[in-house]
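A quick word before the example. In earlier lectures we treated sequence and structure as two separate objects. From today on, think of them as two lines of the same record. Here is Acetyltransferase written that way.
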Amino acid sequence: MNDNNLHVKIDSKKILQEHIAKIAFPFFKLYEKFYGFTYRIFRLQGIFYGINRARFRAKVGHLGEFSDISSNVVIKSPKNLIVGRRSSISPNSFVDAGGGIVIGDYVLISHMVSINSMSHPTTPPYHGVVKAKTIINDHAWIGANSIIKEGIEIGEGAIVAAGAVVTHSVPPWTIVAGVPAKHIREIPHYNKSKIDE
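And the structure line, produced from the sequence above:
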């Protein structure tokens, strides 16, 4: 294909973004080298976790004590995201909190998980928006690459297996797996007061 025949108009916002990226690149390059150096030599990784936690506390509706959100998690409508104590959202996850998402205490969300509270209708016109609050209760564990649809409630202590697509609410203390996610078995309760300390 002859490039001379291509006339692509690039809007001014894209040009400005590219200029900013070129200016900021050396600073981020330096940051990456500094991070690696400090982690290897001084073991200062905790400082970066603390800074990241502070950044997300300013960004989301609520981030509980000792909870962590990995720096590359994408959050849409972050003010509608509530996260309890000692919970974590792992790298490369996507959280669409437009309809509201509540994550309880001691929740483990593995990498590349998609949690949704918004979608499009399944009947025409498809361009509308459906919002429904999604709730993940205390002590739940969401496996890698799983998808939680809007309006779902994951019960206390429930486990969603890796790769599952959850289209219906999950009862407490059960394991679900598959596409769509189906009940596998119940799991025993445990004394939560022991781990709360």
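Notice the following. The longest strand covers residues 182-186. We will return to this example when we discuss secondary structure assignment.
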